[in-house]
Amino acid sequence: MNGHEFVLLQNFVDKTCKELSIDRDLVDFEAFTDRSLSYQEAKAGWDRELKKMGSVTSVNVDAHEEKVREQSEAYRKKLEKQSSKSISGCEELRQFYTPIYEAIEKMKMGLSHLLLVKGRAGIGKSQNIALALKEMGIEYVVANKVSEAYLYRLLHENNGKCIWLRDCMRLFRGQDTIEMLKAASETNKSDRLVTNYNYSKDARGLPKEFLFEGQLIFDFNQVVDMKYSEDFNALKSRGDYMELVFSFVEMCQIMRLIAKEGWQKDVTEWLIQNFQHTGEAFNLRTQQQAFRNYQYALNKNLDWAEYIKAELQRNLSGAKAFLYQFMGKNPIRTLELKQQLLRTGSVQTPRTAERKIAAWLETEELYKVSGEQRNFLVSIYPPEELEVKIVCQR
Question: Which among 34, 248, 273, 311 is placed 20 to 30 Å from 152, CA to CA?
Fold first, then answer.
């Protein structure tokens, strides 16, 4: 769940307790709200909790789910607005994202109906996908962190539209969901017969099969624990697949093109020269954060460079701050990290440690920095930044 969905779930639980006259203090909210779960999975956990308490579960959730859909629409508009401000009108900048625009233009022309864009966070994937869809006049919906059980309903309810799935890596780890996606993206339109493999309540009231006439866009960082790699490769072959990767030099060029005002250029150059001391990933989000901190420092009559540096150093995410105590600034093997987690009591079983590490890799709290399939090196810094850090230390 993202932060907004977490708050919505809290509000929904509070509302349900009030309607059913349940003492809110008796509800073990943490038991079914693991952040690694999707919104739908967490909501199903709440239903199970209600059954344990002997309550009737006939609460109408349609209005609540409508709020989630409204939030998705608001997020779509926000992305388009941000994209127009930072990207539009700069052809030199857009050249870095040409593959995205070409792939979505193929969709507009009816030559393609599947696009998978892989790349680490903060490099401009989402903004350029949103802008390209808007420019091509393609109607689309945004879906975040969709569970396997909800996928069939998502495809059916939005049939005929372009469905943009963000941060849905877990769908690539289940054979049933990959098979469903393969069916929805068959080359011939008449062959795109999608069948329901899941009999959960998320598919209640829907036909057992239907002909999918929409388009699919996947926007993700990386996939770990891939058990069905052959099926995933078969899915990729049905459309356009690209890995958006920028070197440190290219990311500097992109940042310089985004910086239009004089003060933005000054901040960007400072960031490029000093990023190895900030403790943050070097990407466009870091740049935007530095811009905000500059404006705050200016308003408070502070030394903006010192303030930005201090803010970036302390703004490690909760997960990265937690991991830092085990690995510091240097990469370590996954086996060693698992042993550290078990030794300190942070997890109870090796399997839990593996799931935690896999989740951190998916959310880019951790980065894989060596090529081994097992017991590979991981770091809280991305590979390209780690290389520069090592050079600087030498």
Answer: 34
Q: Both tokens of residue 148?
A: 């396997």
Class of domain 89-243 (CATH, top level):
alpha beta
Tokens of 273: 């020269």
Which residue ranges make up each domain of the chain? 3-63, 89-243, 248-314, 318-393
Q: Which residues contact 124 (CB under 8 A, 6 or more apart)?
A: 87, 96, 97, 254, 284
CATH of 318-393, one of 1.10.10, 1.25.10, 3.30.70, 3.10.450: 1.10.10
State the DSSP H helix or E strand holding residue 308, giving kind and residue range, or none if neither: helix 304-314
Is residue 389 predicted with pLDDT exceeding 50?
Answer: no
What are 63-120's pLDDT values in tens digits? 545 555 565 566 556 555 555 444 544 788 999 999 999 999 999 999 999 999 999 8
Dihedral sign for Cα atoms in the order 166, 169, 170, 172? positive
89-243 and 318-393 share one fold: no
Question: What's the CA gap between 159 and 173, in Å, rounded?
Answer: 23
Q: What is the pLDDT of residues 320-358, one digit of tens each?
A: 778 888 888 789 999 999 999 999 888 889 999 998 898
Neighbours of 146 (CB within 10 A): 22
Contacts of 60 (CB under 8 A, 6+ apart): none
Evaluate whether 99 touches 242 at the Cβ level (below 8 Å): yes
Tokens of 301: 């009559």
Q: Are strands 332-333 and 377-379 parallel, antiparallel or unpaired?
A: antiparallel
Per-residue pLDDT of 250-276, as tens digits, reads 999 999 999 999 999 999 999 998 875
